[in-house]
Amino acid sequence: MPIISTGEILCTEMNKETKIGKQVSYFILSGRLVPNETVNLLIENKINKLQYGKNGKTVILDGYPRNQNQAFALNEVLKSELIVFYLDVPKDILLDHLFHRGRKDDTEKIIEQRFEIYLKEPQPLIDYYTKKEVLVKINGKTSMKNFMEIEKIFEYRFSILG
Ligand SMILES: Nc1ncnc2c1ncn2[C@@H]1O[C@H](COP(=O)(O)OP(=O)(O)O)[C@@H](O)[C@H]1O
């Protein structure tokens, strides 16, 4: 199953110093969200390349959408059913994971800034997807526990959809 990870795509662009990479580096390195127009276009292109919808491929979007503007943009490209997993993980576990990951934007200062945004941004999105009845909240303390719960839900959904 193809995975489109917005953060990884943006960081790769930044490291390769592409045109987009140069535009987004300021935002990534200050822990802010990259402007919606840039991210929306990037994801739309990726989804279209996978011909999602045409041949019915299922795709995992990681870290997208992160606000309502992005959710509406996703509605425009999405041609089939959506399941939204909201992983609610305690801050100390996330911090531990990030420090071990050790990416360029995983310094203490940038991480703190990201947390501040992450805590504010998702609420309207959670409300929006809850109303649409597509939100699944996972309270996980470890990646393995999260993974197993998600796997169970996938198996169940696919068994109904056939
Ligand atoms: N959906 C998005 N909208 C805007 N910016 C994003 C999005 N996803 C990732 N980014 C940018 O890429 C950076 C790294 O994202 P990500 O790898 O998802 O971080 P984390 O793994 O800490 O959640 C973010 O700090 C942000 O600047």
UniProtKB/TrEMBL annotation:
CDD domains from the UniProt entry: ADK (cd01428)
UniProt pathway: Purine metabolism; AMP biosynthesis via salvage pathway; AMP from ADP: step 1/1
Function (record text): Catalyzes the reversible transfer of the terminal phosphate group between ATP and AMP. Plays an important role in cellular energy homeostasis and in adenine nucleotide metabolism.
Record region (NMP): 5-34
Alphabetical list of InterPro entries matching this protein: Adenylat/UMP-CMP_kin, Adenylat_kinase_CS, P-loop_NTPase
Binding, ATP: R101, T142
Its EC number(s): 2.7.4.3
Compartments in which it is found: Cytoplasm
UniProt name for this protein: Adenylate kinase
Residues that coordinate or bind AMP: T6, R32, L33, V34, G63, Y64, P65, R66, Q70, R103, R114
Native species: Carnobacterium inhibens
Gene that this polypeptide is encoded by: adk
One Pfam family, short name: ADK
Family named by the database record: Belongs to the adenylate kinase family.
Catalytic reaction annotation: AMP + ATP = 2 ADP
